Each structure stands twice: as structure tokens, then as C-alpha cells.
Amino acid sequence: MSDRNPDGSSNQIPEGLRIPSISRRRMMQLSFFGIGAFTAAPLLAACGADSSGSAPKSGGDLTIVRAQDSVDMDKTMVFSNASLWVYQQMYEPLVAMTEDGQGVRPWLAESYEMSDDNLSCTFKLRSDVKFHDGTPMTSADVKFSIDESSATEGGWEFINSAIKEVTTPDDLTVVVTTKYPWAPLLADLSCPNNGVIPKDYGGKSAKEFYAAPIATGPFMWDEWKKGDYIRLKKNGSYWQSGKPALDTVTWKVVPDDNARSIQLQGGQAQINENPPFSSLEQIKANPKLEVNLFPSTRTDYILMNQTKGPYADVHVRRAISFAIDRDAMVKNILFGAGTPANSFMMPTTPYYDENCKGIQYDMDQARAELKQSSVPDGFTTTYLAMSGDSVDSAISQILQASLKDLGITMKIQNVDASAQHDLTGQLQYEIAHSYWTMDLADPDELVQFALDPSSGGHSFQTAYENPELIELVHAAQREFDETKRAELYAQIQQIAADDAFLGFLFYTPFPYAQSADVKNFKVLPTGYYHLEDVTL
């Protein structure tokens, strides 16, 4: 299991713990929700997608322009958003995330039921689902798909680490049994890695299959001209009657921000994925275009490495957290589009506690905390910055000025984004900036990675360890009572905030621009989207 540690070291992992590769997942996201969206003033009020009762139009070719190409269509191994958002239109799970990101709903399964001992879940499959080649989907395909992901190494297998076995009592029944009571199970099964494909890859090798995949989704494989575009075409036998409306969907690679905007305004594209905030005012001024700022799970943080300098001292961490002027960051970096963070969990995640006090900007409190610390007269530290990242640069400058007033000299060392990711993962830094987006409708994905050092992520690359919190994390994983689970996560958030294991910065939305002709396009808080309801 050594591949899961960013530093390449191996861990002895206690039974019952999910082993996340989230640092790898975050790395693949860096360029997608990194500097581009934050370069200038955003539009705070924007036109939303039309979900009125008007009859949907049938047909049409949708083009989405984006900065990067996909990496691969292998759902078990690939973490890049540029891949996920394409292959999610083909691979479908048993249950899918709800639009608000707070739970799951039946999808390929028409119903599900947990056992009384919370050790298994029985799924009744829809009887009308067919693969793109016309073959009916059965429980054997579901078992193969989940088992395939569980057996991979270095991919999404950590999501399935609690699963003991998958059995198939009949063609339309699947039973997923866990090693121990596991509250995040349904959310885990909604993850893209558990999308259903034909058993044994439909008689092909895995490599052959993923070069032109077959699944059950509203769109099916058409063509990939690498570096240029991917095109999917309509599944005319989709199990949701009358859907999809679109004939084709094309994701076109246009690296230049201005070129993407020009193509949207010129009608060559209908959706611009992640446009710079600097372009949104101009886009809104065009009556033929619309802008959406979709609520997201993106949260930005200051990392403090507790193996370096004085950062093991809680008073030092609290002093720095009090010295972070979050309002200034939201105003000057996000131009009002974000919200200061009070918790390491985000408002769009289940069990987020709006009553968590967190730590907000207060220089008097910052000075008082530093006076109680092991370095009351201040110290010198080095901020590991991502060169070329305007957000990271602005954060470092605002933080540098505040810490100077506190008596802390913060030097800035610039490295490229890949090196910054590697060095923070290896705990070879002192203080740095990072961020997170969720993949599931359950907080455990983040909470375990951030607070349980045995999970393989060095407690969000900070080396933080609090035995009380670790016990609470494990208790929350096994608690099925919603009220009790909420209480556990409220405790977790408050203790984590008081310990200032991270400096919580701000929450930000996902920006999209689109033609006014596009209807029913919605982005989930994770960044995922469904296109079966979209019309032109």
C-alpha cells in the first residue's frame, strides 16, 4: 500500500480505516480550479439555468470548451476532473448524489435497504437498463464493476476499502457486505469508480475496453482526438425515457482563457468551463450569454507543518490563524465571490456546522496567543509558494503583511505547482497553501484524510495528531443515527478549529458561462454534472 503515501513510505494501517489517495486527487485538480477562476472581479449575481416547465427541445450538438484534455477513461485509476466529467456521462452508479450534495438517490438501483446490523445493503436493480450495445445489465455486471475497482492498486480502491464482498442472489439483486458498520457506504458507492460496466469488459481486455468504453449512461462513446476534443453521442436506448435530448456532446480543448471566451461569444461553444472571473462581467453584458456561480465544496487552507519550526505549538498555530485577514482575501483575491471559512468542512457538505466558531481575524488575539507560545518574540519561517499561481501569490502577500505586524518574518520560496505538491506531501515545508474539493456526499472522505494520520495523508500534510479527534472520526464512520452523527461532526469541527491544525481561509463557487440557449445545466457541489436533462 506504499503508493498511497505522497512520500512513498509505507504505513501499517489499522483494520477498519479507509486509505485515501486524496493528495493525488487534489494534484489532478490543481489546474482546473486553480488560478484561472480567480484572476479578477467576479459577477456576484448571475443568471441561473432555466428549469421551467417548458417542453424540452430534442436534438442539438453541445460543445463545452475547457483548458485541458482528459487523461484516460479508466474509472478505477484516473483522478483528473477532465476525465471524470466526461466518463460520468457513460458510467452510472447504483446510487447517485443528490443535486444539493447532501445525500444519494436511487439510480441504477430502484431501491436499497440496509440490514439491521448495518453490515450489508441490499440493492434491487432496475429491470430496464441496457448497456450501449443493447445487452441487459444484471447483478453480475454490478459485482464485476465494484470488485474491479476494489482490486486496483494506486487508484480509487480506497473508496471501497470497507467492502468485504459483493454477492448476487439473483439477476436483479446485489448485496454489498462491509467488514464493519460503515456509514459512508452509500456515498462511497455513488463515486465514479463504482460506475457499472459489462462483466469481464464485455469479452475484451481492460485496455481495449477503456479505449472505447461501453456502459449504461445517457451518452455513448464516439471519438477522441487527443489534445483536441472528445465527443460522445446520444444513447437512443437510455433507460430514462425521452432522455437525453442532445445528439452529441463535445469537450473541446482550448487552453487560452480569452480564446474560450471568444468561442463562447461567437457561438462555436455553448458552455465555457471555469472561465476567469475577469471575463464574467463582459459575458453577462451579452444578452445571449449567462453566468453561473455554482455552490461548491472548494475550501482553501494554510498548511502548517508540525514537524518543522514551532508549528507543533498550538499557540503559534492559533496566532497565525487569528492573523489571517479572511475578509481581505475574499475582497481582494475573490472580489467578493467567496465566504470566509469557519470550519475545515464546507457548507455544501453533510454535517457542516454553521455554529462552529472557528478562528477569525483578530490581531489582538493573535498577539496574545503568540505571547503564550514558545516563541513569544516571533520567529522566521518560509512559505512554500506555487510559482505562477496568482491566488497563492496573493494569499502569501496578505499573510506575509499580517505576520510581519505580529513579529513573524515570512520568507517566500517559489516552486512549480508539482514540486509544491510533492514537497508538502513529503512534509518538506514549513507553511504553505492548499485546497480541497469533495467527491462524495459524505464528510468522511475529507475528515479522515485531514485528521487521521494513519489514513496515509499525514493529516492533510501537517503531521497533526489528536487522539481524541481520531476516536471521534472512527465513531462517526460507524454511526448510522443522523442526529448522533451530526453531534460527532460538530465536536470534530470545533476541536479542529480550536487546535488550528489548519488555517481555514475561504469557500468559493464553481464559475461557468453558457449560451442562453442552454437549459437545465447544473453543476453539483463536487463539480460533477449530469447532461441527460440539458437541452439547446
TrEMBL record:
Where does the record locate the signal sequence feature?
none
**Which taxonomic lineage does the organism of this UniProt entry have?**
Bacteria, Bacillati, Actinomycetota, Actinomycetes, Propionibacteriales
Q: Which InterPro entries match?
A: Peptide/Ni-bd, SBP_5, SBP_5_dom
**GO CC, any one term:** periplasmic space
The protein in question is named: ABC transporter substrate-binding protein
Carries keyword Ligase? no
What are the protein's UniProt keywords? Signal, Transport
* Source superkingdom: Bacteria
Describe the location of the Solute-binding protein family domain by residue ranges.
104-454
UniProt lists the family membership as follows:
Belongs to the bacterial solute-binding protein 5 family.
Alphabetical GO biological process terms: peptide transport
Pfam families linked: SBP_bac_5 (PF00496)
Output the Gene Ontology terms for molecular function: peptide transmembrane transporter activity
